[in-house]
Amino acid sequence: MFFCKLNKIEKIFEFILFFVFIALVSGQFLFTGEPFRFYWSLAERMEGVPWEETVCKLFPEKADLTGKVEIELISNFCFPEARVLVNGEEVANFQERKVVVQVQEGDLLQIDGTAYSCELIFRVKEVAPGIIWPSPFFQVETKGNIATIGEVVME
């Protein structure tokens, strides 16, 4: 008699376990549908929610990241037709042997030596604190062409 009752309780547990398993599989299947997945998932509902303004102010904007790069001509003469290009636009020329250029992160620095067929050597003499690239003492050579120093990278 005792074992009969245990057998009935075991059958009830098996029955409950079977329906819980069916409910679990059905629930997983429902999560593949768009409305259920969106409304039942907290992470999905939070996606696209804008941050508070105080959190966003912790990260500086890229427009605020500016610095200066000093480039010098290593030859003994001045070459006024040699130009410094930032993003393809002329910002300075070498009337003097040194020029200082204001740059932002991501700007493309180039030296335009197309006016001269001789070899010209330019060196990045100094950079502002916070500028990782171009590094000081980096050299480029032009011989009637445009030489690329690279994109400005800041901390």
What does this structure look like?
There is one protein chain. The protein has helices spanning 2-30, 34-40, 42-46, 53-56; strands at 66-73, 79-86, 89-94, 98-104, 108-112, 120-127, 131-133, 139-142, 146-151, 153-154. By secondary structure, it is α+β, with helices and mostly antiparallel strands. It has two domains: 2-49; 62-154, no CATH class. 29% of the residues lie in helices and 37% in strands. The longest helix is centred in the first third of the chain and has 29 residues, at 2-30.
In short:
With 155 residues, the protein is α+β, with helices and mostly antiparallel strands. The protein is built from four helices and ten strands, in the order ααααββββββββββ.
Number of helices: 4
How far apart are the first and last residues' alpha carbons, in Å?
80 Å
Question: Considering DSSP H and I runs of 4 or more, what fraction of the residues is helical?
Answer: 25-40%
Given the C-alpha coordinates, what overall shape results? rod-shaped
The oligomerization state is: single chain
**Could you say which structural class the secondary elements and strand pairing correspond to?**
alpha+beta
Radius of gyration, in Å, reads 34 Å
Number of domains: 2
Quote the average pLDDT. Answer: 83
The overall strand count is 10
Ranges with pLDDT <50 over ≥5 residues? none
What can be said about the biggest beta sheet? 4 strands, antiparallel
Write out the strand line-up for the largest beta sheet, numbering strands in chain order: 4-1-6-8
Beta-strand percentage range: 35-45%
